[in-house]
Amino acid sequence: MLTLSILGFLAERPMHAYELRQVISTLIGHNRPVSDGALYPALNRLRQAGHVERQAEPGTRAPTRQVLRITDNGRAELLRRLSEPKTTEITDSGSFFTLLAFLGQLPETAQQMAVLRRRLDFLTQPAGFFHHAGAPARIKDVDDRYRKGMLLMARATQRAERAWLEQTLRELAEQAETEV
């Protein structure tokens, strides 16, 4: 998700590495802290792959700064990652939310809808943290208050996300009809 975040934010505007680290931290730092030890190797890999370039720009009151920009190849890679997410990027909430942060950069409504449908399909499959008699546990079957709390919060979050996905897919379908 670090690579997707780098490409996504640089597609919005060029920035220097310190600023990039800050914006990435606001997006994914609560789940996975973004250290220099992770960011700079990722930036180097992206530069070597031709997805990101670094340019020196004079500072107004400071020395020359290195500004990072996405390349055309980097933009193509971003769009590929957004339109063809891995299964784990659909099933893992933190990864999906990172993907969702940049999904609006996909140029075609149908591509955006396909990603959202994949997430909705995943959310509609039976699942649960705990099992009772071979099936996902019902809240009333769980005696431990903390596990019951986990189930209550997870189910409420899932209901809210499903409602948002269904509404957004309806709106995008209407938008797609007017684009034709």
Name the structural class.
mainly alpha
Characterize the biggest β-sheet: 3 strands, antiparallel
Distance between the termini: 33 Å
Approximate shape:
globular
Question: How would you describe this protein?
Answer:
This protein is mostly helical. The protein has helices spanning 2-12, 17-28, 36-48, 72-83, 87-91, 93-102, 109-124, 145-179, and strands spanning 15-16, 52-57, 65-70, 131-132, 135-136. The strands form two sheets. It has a three-stranded antiparallel sheet. It has a two-stranded antiparallel sheet with strand order 4-5. Strand 4 (131-132) and strand 5 (135-136) form a beta hairpin. The longest helix is centred in the C-terminal third of the chain and has 35 residues, at 145-179. The model has no long low-confidence stretch (mean pLDDT 89).
Q: Which properties best describe this structure?
A:
180 residues; Arc Repressor Mutant, subunit A
Q: Strands, helices and their partners?
A:
Blueprint: H1 2-12, E1 15-16, H2 17-28, H3 36-48, E2 52-57, E3 65-70, H4 72-83, H5 87-91, H6 93-102, H7 109-124, E4 131-132, E5 135-136, H8 145-179
Antiparallel strand pairs: 1-3, 2-3, 4-5
Concise summary:
With 180 residues, the protein is mainly alpha-helical.
